[in-house]
Amino acid sequence: MPSRSRRIKKLGLFLPKTNPFYLGMFWAIKRGLEQAGIEVSGWTELLDERSLLTFCREFKPDAVFEMNRSRRQIPWFPKHIVHIGWIVDLGSRDQNEFGDSEILYFFNRDWLGHYTVPHSGFVDWLPPAFCPTINSPKKQQILSDFSFVGHISNPWDDKEYSRIVYKDDTTSITFKEIEFLFSEYWNSTRTFTTSYLAIETNQSLNPAIKQNIIKSLQSDPILKYDTHCRLVRMYNRQRLINCCLGFSNSLRLYGTNWHRWPIYAPYYRSFIEDPRELTTIFQTSAINLHEGVPLHMRVFECLGSGGFLMYFIPQGVNFAASQMHELLEEGTHYMAVAESDFEESASYVLKNFSYRDSVIKSATQLVHAEHTWRDRVHKILQDCRSVL
């Protein structure tokens, strides 16, 4: 264990990938740490054993903060250095695959609730935040009724559709058939609690085949990701944008792959690399649409910029239990909508500027007071003191 007489003065910061999203987050977290008097070094990649040990020997950090990696993945990591793991993206992994760090954070509070690994360190929820240097409110001319910032998955190609998920002497089932089962089930029930219900409740498959299909989907990491993440995201974002287009064509889409969908290509603008451009988008959209992880970085960036946020709730999701309620108040800081009331809610916002301005003011004041990266750094350093 690290020495309990030391304080965190130097910290290594490592995020998993070099792209505009992680680069923006890296500099935002780094600013928050430096504002707290911490010397920071690192980059947007997770180092291999030799490189990380060299870094520790030369920089001599008191702690290393890594996204999507814990001590369990790097058992050779020096014992005298505090390891802080922040698990933001599980991918095809289970939350219980992480552990042994002095401090382990989960990005999603639901993952924390399902974490059952005995742990000698500190385990908690660490929601994202924003950088007020980048995201500060400014009144601008509205350029569109709606905008959506975020990617959509590529349409399935023939190779992906033709993957064999199950085969015996008389039956062969492809991924295209599985995708159809999911879509058919979701269209009829609007329930997204588990994708396997689409198979378990299907009346045309015998029980043995059902179990083998599920086993195949669970054992193949790519198929597991495609059914648990990609398919759900694709479906939900299509539902949201289709709702929007059924109400208004005044829409701007930003992010990858929208141009690959013929129905959405006319509304696609660009992929944003400069986080300051995002601030402008938030400020020039009457309504900023959000779908997916409730408390995403984009939520705080939007609210910090003075944007109006509308969160889309897929039917079947228990929004009452959402982590959004722990930090933000619906109706006061943002608006939540379902498919059934999208048009009514959007129309109300677009016609009632006083309501919109009131929500923006309340949200901006709250997030600048409580949800900057400096606030998150304060928590991290407090937690470090509890293990040192």
Total strands: 14
Percent of residues in helices: 40-55%
By CATH, the superfamily of the largest domain comes out as: Glycogen Phosphorylase B
Task: Give the biggest beta sheet.
Answer: 6 strands, parallel
Q: CATH class of the largest domain, anyone?
A: Alpha Beta
Q: What's the assembly state of these chains?
A: single chain
Tell me the distance between the termini: 9 Å
Percentage of β-strand residues:
15-25%
Summarize the structure in words.
- With 388 residues, the protein is of the alpha/beta class.
- It has three domains: 10-127 and 374-387, Rossmann fold (3-Layer(aba) Sandwich), CATH 3.40.50; 144-155 and 235-372, 3-Layer(aba) Sandwich (Rossmann fold), CATH 3.40.50; 158-229, no CATH class.
- 41% of the residues lie in helices and 16% in strands.
- It has helices spanning 20-35, 49-59, 109-113, 158-161, 175-189, 197-200, 207-219, 221-247, 275-283, 297-304, 324-327, 342-351, 353-370, 373-387, and strands at 10-14, 39-43, 63-67, 82-87, 103-106, 122-125, 144-149, 164-167, 172-174, 251-254, 268-270, 285-290, 309-312, 335-337.
- It has a six-stranded parallel β-sheet. A six-stranded parallel β-sheet has the order 11-10-7-12-13-14, sandwiched between helices.
- Helix 1 packs across helix 14 and helix 7 crosses helix 8 (221-247).
